[in-house]
Amino acid sequence: MPVSPAEVAHRAASDAELVAWVDEHDQPLGALPRAELRERGLIGRCTFILLFNSAGDLCVHRRTLSKALYPGYWDVAAGGMVGVGEGYAASAARELEEELGVSGVELRFHETFYFEQPDNRLWCAVFSAVWDGPLCLQPEEVSEARFISMEQAEQESAKLAYCPDSLAALQRYKASHG
What we know:
By secondary structure, the protein is α+β, with helices and mostly antiparallel strands. The chain has a single domain, classed as Nucleoside Triphosphate Pyrophosphohydrolase (Alpha-Beta Complex). The chain has five helices and nine strands; from the N terminus they run αββαββββαβββαα. Strand 1 and strand 2 (about 30-35) form a beta hairpin. It is globular and about 40 Å long. It starts with a helix and ends with a helix. The model has no long low-confidence stretch (mean pLDDT about 95).
């Protein structure tokens, strides 16, 4: 499936967006364009929002092919980079509304943790929320979404391409919630 002109434009705007730059201890160092932070291997802040329905199923979504990181991968969490001057909670609320069209829900904070791969260094804040309403997907970032059990998501992640950073967030959430 080809990348649409809207996705290309969204990617360019996203790459130029100023995001929070932090050190290994999550202390602010300033702001950099998202693409520069990634290219230089520096550390940014991000949020992961695990969205459940009242039956306990988890919303998983597929990232569009225009995403700079993990294009076309399945993701167990909504979320993204924390903007300049933005706190983790504000970022989580913004990202949940932007990506899945969910607003006005109680966001429960769980923890922060450090995630590192060669192309992805992040201080991550994990939140969860419960939502039984409709989803309104952001077409430039999310191509499809569905609710499945956490067990099914884990089984799929062994066979399908799932984002490793959000999987780490899910594993930490599960470990702290029995």
